[in-house]
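WARN no homologs supplied; continuing
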Amino acid sequence: MLATFISSPKKKHYLEGICGMKKVKARIKTPFGEIVVEGESPQEVLSMLETFPESFMEKVANLVSSRLVPSTAQLKGIVEFTTEGPVIITREKLTHYEVIGLILYTSEEKRNTAAQITKLLESSGIKCMVPARLNEMTKRGQVFKPDPSRPEFKLTVQGERWVEDDVLARLRGKMA
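OK structure emitted
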């Protein structure tokens, strides 16, 4: 028997059984990704699923979200979360690249459209040519388009590290 975790942006909850090559898999799609339970027979998969505690999904979701989502305490005085999305509230001087990086970093799934980023920056009192900056950030390897047919941009791993290690570290240092 084998249980594995596969990351996925899907936000559906359902169970899907897959048979093939003498293995049976159950894929459980969750808000944070996908859990796959694998066994030699359907009975083995069912018995493994029955051993999961009732609060298993809740505990895993909380654990994953606490590890992956930047905590609001870390961003206090820098970013404020509104119904529209994250708004920059720090008075520190930031470049257009840094504010776009912060907006993407604090956005759901670390992705957003140029139009929405522009609106959020305007709400923050910042005027910026977002599409041009995103194009330059793409060339720098800080953002990419996960689906070229959609207008969304997402931070790369390098972009996330840059926001965490350079931008947020500098802002926290000035606030301390």
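The chain has six helices and nine strands.
OK
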